[in-house]
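Researcher: I'd like a structural prediction for the single chain below. Treat it as a standalone chain; there are no partners to consider.
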Amino acid sequence: PARRAGHETWVLDDREALPGPNHPASLLAQRIRDEAHRFAVRGHRKRRAKRVVASPLEAIAGIGPKRRQKLLAHFGGLKGVRSAGIEELERVDGINRQLAEAIYREMRR
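Model: Treating it as a single chain, here is the predicted structure.
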């Protein structure tokens, strides 16, 4: 069913319909509806974008947002993390030998 913009009938609480599409009450209802829709769409796009941009570091158990940020800051980005050896990874605050080995393995898959 095609929507006919501007030809909607606005009914509130089983009362009579709001007057025509150019009436201030109808325009207010339209603006509220449009703002709610814009807000919902923006939120959905942000959630979808986060999934797309996910870092490969997030797949490693024990690496949360804080450790990921420390690694990226220490090595200047994901490329630096990929080229780092186990000993270099261990030098980052919060990264022990076991975690450094897991990062090393994951970055070379």
